[in-house]
Amino acid sequence: MPTITIDSTSHTQMINIDRAIENLIPKGFTSGVCHLFTLHTTSGLTVNENGDPNVVSDMNIFMKDLIPWINDKYEHSEGNTAAHLKSTIYGPSLTIPIENGRLTLGTWQSVYFCEFDVPRNSRKIIVKFITD
Amino acid sequence: MPTITIDSTSHTQMINIDRAIENLIPKGFTSGVCHLFTLHTTSGLTVNENGDPNVVSDMNIFMKDLIPWINDKYEHSEGNTAAHLKSTIYGPSLTIPIENGRLTLGTWQSVYFCEFDVPRNSRKIIVKFITD
Amino acid sequence: MPTITIDSTSHTQMINIDRAIENLIPKGFTSGVCHLFTLHTTSGLTVNENGDPNVVSDMNIFMKDLIPWINDKYEHSEGNTAAHLKSTIYGPSLTIPIENGRLTLGTWQSVYFCEFDVPRNSRKIIVKFITD
Question: How far apart, in whole angstroms, are the C-alpha atoms of residue C90 and residue A89?
Fold first, then answer.
């Protein structure tokens, strides 16, 4: 099963995976879609700006304010409820069109794996390609 | 059309549907994806933790604070704008990989149907299987 | 590649695209799914109520309060970080089942293209149809 493996290096980090996905597109696969799925409940997948890196850092700062790490109401003993919330809000799966053997992304779009927990090794994203 | 039917029993409830999905995987279907789609505008679908039940209850409590049921600005006469907002934020559709005839989920992942409105009968989720 | 092109006319606008999608369903395509993907980082796709228009306007008003356009912490020079955040929260992709050559939507559901930035011309949504 085609899989992308990532070692995240900081808390709440968005990592560009465009190249990692394109490296997995099977030879001869021209037109269809690519389905991405993260295997973790404290990470997510999204598409957003690849130009100004302030977009990604603004997003991370805003989300930390919106969903604080510490909250007296959280009961989850591991203490990372905020990461679980962001995982669901960003979502665990994405579908991206493929044409001429390449991801069909807008000029400013890149695909991001989002780490919402502490840095972790061997985060895994499953990639499925389906022809149309 | 393969369909999962659910009677929700409380306001803002996350119901594990792993087993219900796996029961619908066609015999002989080995590798591909499963597309889920809820037919309602006050429910959603997500993937999150299946271990500590406090994760799900923390999420429900946090989301009730973030998107209050009562808000002087809401104009929708039915009074359930909060449920519509959560439906869009969690999302109506999910795509999950299948390998060896089983959902490919991480150790701590389960698929949840999320009721955001009052308890309702016959909530429906359409399930489509596509081979890769 | 089947594409829907939209000129948005106001800031934070939800535009019903049911008809535009159905016009693209290939002749003879009966059963499968439809994948939608927006090519922009300040727009999103969602499914929500098509009956009372107050649902959509309540959602837009609430989201403007939740994610303010002006925030002293934003560093992105273009000044539209709020639009990027909403794009990720609503999501760039959607998958909708098709049966008997028609979108399988609930009674109250419609598909919306969501403009989160200023009005813009030629917003593009790629549409892929895959048979099951």
Answer: 8
**pLDDT tens profile A25-60:** 999 999 999 999 999 999 999 999 999 999 999 999
Distance from CA of C28 to the nearest CA of A (A): 15
Q: What is the pLDDT of residue C38?
A: 98
In this prediction, residues C107-113 reach a mean pLDDT of 97
Single pTM value for the model: 0.97
Cα end-to-end span (Å), chain A: 20
Tell me what pLDDT residue A61 has.
97
Contact A84 B57 (CB under 8 A): no
Domain ranges of chain A: 3-131
Task: Give the E-state strand segments of chain B in sequence order.
Answer: 3-6, 13-16, 32-38, 43-49, 93-99, 102-103, 109-115, 123-131
Q: Minimal CA–CA distance to C8: which of C41, C36, C37, C43?
A: C43
- Cβ neighbours of B39 in C, within 8 Å: 104-106, 109
Q: Say if the Cβ atoms of B47 and A78 lie within 8 Å.
A: no
Which fold does the domain B3-131 belong to in CATH? Jelly Rolls (2.60.120)
Contact A124 B130 (CB under 8 A): no
Chains with at least 3 CB pairs less than 8 angstroms from chain B: A, C
Low-confidence stretches of chain B (pLDDT < 50) are none
Asked if A35's CB is within 8 angstroms of B95's CB, the reply is: yes
SS3 of B66, please?
Answer: helix
Select from C128, C130, C131, C132 the residue whose CB has the most chain A CBs within 10 Å, as the one to mutate to test that interface: C128
Task: Kindly indicate whether the ipTM for this predicted assembly is greater than 0.85, answering yes or no.
Answer: yes
Q: Which two tokens stand for residue C79?
A: 């000044």
Three-state SS across chain C? CCEEEECCCCCCEEEECHHHHHCCCCCCCCCEEEEEEECCCCEEEEEEECCCHHHHHHHHHHHHHHCCCCCCCCCCCCCCHHHHHHHHHHCCEEEEEEECCEECCCCCEEEEEEECCCCCCCEEEEEEEEEC
